Amino acid sequence: MPHVPLISQYLSQRYLLAALIFISTLLVAACSGGSEHNSVEFDPESSLIASINISSPAFDNGAAIPVEFTCDGDNTSPPLRWSDVPDGTHSIAIVVDDPDVPSGIFRHWSIFNIPSGRRSLTANQPTFFELKDSTRQTLNDNGSTGYSGPCPSLGQEHEYVFFIYALTEQLELEENASPQAVSAALRGRVLGTGSFSGMYARR
Asked: Which helix (H) or strand (E) holds 92?
């Protein structure tokens, strides 16, 4: 697999460090073989993790998320599209995080086991565990299944980061798996990743 730069061009500067630390953890888990003596130093410029371009036809990277995809509108998931994934990909996962909440990162969506041949998701995905094909969803940090749209406090603008992961296998997760369980299941299975973000403020 060719050496491909990581996705720093898609992340806001204030969120880049956290993302790189997380990917570093994934690489170490994949390469350590369970031994603390076999860990490798993470270099984002020469990483073997491939870059995937992900975007939405509904809004540009860094732009405002349309109200229909938020708690002030229909609270439905936006349409997404992405580029080709690396050879060896067996499934795709997408998570949406808000890094601007005072308590830490807030998970708005975990959708996984998307078939590797898919290159898009339509808007308004159903909010239950089993979707078509092998695609599955689990709990968000609001305690509901599927997508939960942006809903920051009045007068605050938050960033919402859409991450995509190309994985070596499908994830074996229960219907009510937590956001933390999804993040843990990604470790050691990532072949490629990418991200973009949108902003939202309630007025």
From this structure: strand 91-98
